[in-house]
Records
---
Amino acid sequence: MDVGAIWRVWLPLAAGLWALWEIFRFGPGLHGGARWAGLALGFVGLAGVIVARYTLGRSFSVAAKARALVTTGIYSRIRNPIYVSGVIFVVGLVLMVGRPILLAILVVIIPMQIVRARREARVLEEKFGEEYREYRRRTWF
């Protein structure tokens, strides 16, 4: 395993798992079924982000760039798994802390992610053309 994979994948995974567990144990809100459901969703969302980030490898960038067209792993089904998983993660956190008003965060996050996904799609389509259009036809978001 290269050092980059430790920084890109394993360190964020460990930090995320620790943070989720600490929020679950000590965060505000009632300790009941919704909190456990939130923990499960938080883990699923975090795992999705980490798996997607690992699959992207060195193709990951914050700004839209077209280094490679990644179509394997989770990217074989979802074009933007980091965005989808991030929303799942936030929903999990909201359930854990028992503050439904925090779902308003999604009113900001989701449109931002849609705009970013469209920008990335334009960059990828310019670089990969028909290959990207075919990929887009067989995947979700």
Note: DSSP finds five helices and no strands in the chain.
---
Amino acid sequence: MDVLGDVLAVCAVSGTVAATIDAGERWGLGLDQVPGAAFHAIATGTAWLRVPGRPAVQLMPGDVVLLPGGAPHRLSGDPDAAVTAFDHAAAAQAMPAGGVLQVGAPPVRTRILCATYRQDPIASTRLFSLLPHVMHVAAGARGRGALDDTLRLLAAEIAEPQPARAVVLDRLVDILLIQVLRAWLSDAPDALPASWLRAMSDDVVAPALAALHADPAREWTLQTLAERASVSRATLARRFTSTVGESPGAYLTRWRMDLAARRLRDTDDPVSVVARSVGYTSEYAFSRAFTRARTLPPGRYRFVARSRVSTEPGISTA
């Protein structure tokens, strides 16, 4: 089982292009806290990234940067340039028409694609909060082959707008997130906190984690998981807890509750069917476990979750 793909799907992590920026001379943009993760790709030219409390970083052609927490930051042509607030309304008006947001004095020196990512709050499994404050994947970094190919497609789509442009751009942005994670994880998995994401790079824990995701309804025991990992039960128990941050049983229960919560909200399946789909033969036992995890019994949770979807303009960030 592809654990990363599983989490991205269940947690409904998705991206949206926020703006295409054409920057000339003497420009600077200030971006407030972004409701989600912020992403910038430098298609042509250079830019300086400034994040409070961190040294300024010069971004080169082909560089991409992800701010998983959406922290306030600045983009500019010079490290000490004055900035104006990013005009979200102008960017939103420009995108459907295939246009760009013009900043600075002509001629155009730099083109930047800006995007945001959000996660469905229904899932307790986190992604963005596990990542560093700033993730900078430089041009030429290891593991960037597919990332560079996607950036070229992105640049071509921006340069020559075609029908369904916004849809294509959003799909490419979703692919870019995965490729950025792949490139970054290939170099720095030890920088992650104890979590499922860190466990993906652990030779002992990864097979056990994949087994739980492949068949979450199975009645797993420490022994059967240890057999998957080809280690003793004691070794797996110790290694899983230190790498993931919780025991195999606790992780499986939390993942089952994420699966159940999504199914309760998005389908009309009876609670008994949802319970069986995540490994509970007793609806009563499932209801008790779900209530402990989500503070509401399944039926009430379904009603409240659907009410929130119908009244909110969009999915809030993780």
Note: Residues 313-318 have pLDDT under 50 and may be disordered.
---
Amino acid sequence: MRVLVTGGAGFIGSHLVDALLDRGAEVSMADHLQRSPKPWFGEALLRGAQLYVADLRDLPALRPAFAAARPEVVLHLAAQVDVRQSVTNPAFDAQVNVAGTVSVLEAAREVGARRVVMASTAAVYGDPPDLPTSEDAPIAPLSPYGTSKAAAEWYLGQYRRLHGISTLALRMANVYGPRQDPHGEAGVVSIFSGLAASGGRATVFGDGRQTRDYVFIDDVVDAWLAASTSDVTGALNISTGIETSVRELAEELDLSYDFAPGRVGEIERSCLDPSTAAAQLGWRPAVPLANGLRRMLGALPSDVSRRAPAAPGVP
């Protein structure tokens, strides 16, 4: 199978590229490479992955990559994922997540790709009344990030109806695991793990009772692999169905913390029902949070004490 992964140098994308190579797929990556590549990126190239440097907002620059790769399946993970940046710069967020997704869909259509799977998010639901939240819950995002992802999902449906491309959005809960950098737009598990390893203190925004559904990277990769070979369309939750508060996460890591005022656009409770993915993809999460946290801590670099951020929060 010929697969093109957008954002293949990123956290989730790099794990997915490795898994596809392990399974003998012909893998290409489209990435802007505006961040310094990590060691595993070079290893993927040595194993045969092809790289095309392109910004997904630039369709003319993206077309040659798709023409060269000739993908049967496109796994679209490149995105603007920082909720805070989406609040301060919603136009940029929309350019990447909405216009960028349309560019990917159009390039995929032009080369005859049969399937496009896109990374979506629990943020499309906003603060839903029912937890765990199923896929038929209302779409009511609180942040521009959630709004842009919801709009991108509509474009997936439009390309399916108009052009017959098989499309699926994977609404992922909070993904964590090795390779997630405890800086910038990193997830709270990565930030807290870095602080726990370095003996630092966390900053918790709000009262710390905000909940999230934390799903380990290996489980997420398995979901993407299942989605890439299926014919399921629409949207599926990729999650554990288990709520964990920010305070509980810090305590699981034996991490001390201080409080700071809450932030605009932050969801209070988030937990997704994964039962439809189990029924339609045959996928179920297998890694409990305690086990995933141990693996996360064990994979941290030895110099983490010098690199851990001083004042993290909850994306």
Note: The chain has two domains: 2-174+215-238, 177-214+242-270+287-307.
---
Amino acid sequence: MRELIGLDVLADEPIRNYTTFKIGGPAKFFVKVQNKDELKKSLAAALELKLNYWILGGGSNVLVSDKGFDGLVIKLADGALDISENEVKVFAGHSLALLIREVIGKNLGGLEFAANIPGTIGGAIYGNAGAYGKGVGDLVEKIEVLEITASGVVEKTFSPAECEFKYRDSIFKKHPEWIVAEIVLNLPTDENAQSKLDEIQKEWESRKAKQPWNFPSAGCTFKNLIYTEELAKYKEWEIKGKLPAGKFIEEAGLKGMKIGGAQVSELHANFIINLGDATADDVMQLISLVKTKVRDEFNVQLEEEVQYVGF
């Protein structure tokens, strides 16, 4: 595999070391890539050797099985970035927070709303990450994708419309054979972008005060609900067209609920935290309990924002 990829490949590498939850068993094989060519070679090697593969970004929003992953984990690392006037071309493994600070340094704006969202730009595209009613997909010019086919790995280009961006969603969630490799953004010039760094820091301090950043977690466990007339009885909870999942969990009396080493945060009910020794099974059981209690009490079905791997 090292010969096929041309990079160092690790065996039995603990995946928990690369996730914000600090949960997950070993990867049978593990490699870090920093550009589209390295990613393409890694995928081609997995296909040639008939191995399962999984693309790991920043490690947030994922829950990895205690058994780990029986195949090749391809870790996307910070890599290629090219800024030319208003066009930004970036490798999918680039840190979203770092990218935003770099483009602000070039007097480019538009992405400040996502400055304190953890993870990579590739993961942000995959899930159309956002905040305050905005999504990263709003600023996409095109997406370079590696498609897994019967004959090998093929490069494709997607327009914004073809990406089908929606609230916390994109077409890539429906097509695991399409791997986001590079992103081209078109960002507006903003001569006041530098001054927004102070606002970003204040927003980060506000988030830290409201969310349990002192414990490992995957971020928000459940998607907020899109407000509709069918949910009019909860109108007073509505914020910018959404009903906070954490509000339902809190009103169901589930703050502080524990199973094993996993707990519904007492600070923010939409966070399930790892108290130090949580297993993936603990978290799965707690997620199931929360969904059942909320459904029974409010007739509302919560949907996970967290992705499951290795189950």
Note: The mean pLDDT is 92.
